[in-house]
Amino acid sequence: xxxxxxxxxxxxxxxxxxxxxxxxxxxxxxxxxxxxxxxxxxxxxxxxxxxxxxxxxxxxxxxxxxxxxxxxxxxxxxxxxxxxxxxxxxxxxxxxxxxxxxxxxxxxxxxxxxxxxx
Length: 118
Hints:
118 residues, Tetrahydropterin Synthase, Chain A
C-alpha cells in the first residue's frame, strides 16, 4: 500500500459556542491542513496521485475558508468550527473529487491537531 501526504494552509477566525474559556471569544488561527491519499498500486508512471493536482483540489476547498469568520459559514451553523469539524468538512468535500483520500488532519497550532477519516 502506498500513502502520500500534502500540506496546505489557511487563516481564519472562529469562536467556540458553549466552551468555557478563552476559545469562547473570537480568535484566529493559521490552520495547517494535511491530506493523505492511499492506493494499493501506482499508476503507469509510478505515482499514487500527482501532488500538484491534490494540492490544487485541496486549495480550492480551503479558499472557501480562508480569511473567513468560520462561525458564519453555513456548514458550521449547527456545529462548532473546531479542528475536528473542519477536518470532517474538508474530508467530505474532498472525497467525491479524489476517491483515494484516506484522512484529513487539521492543525490549529504546532502541537494540536485533529484527524478525520472514514
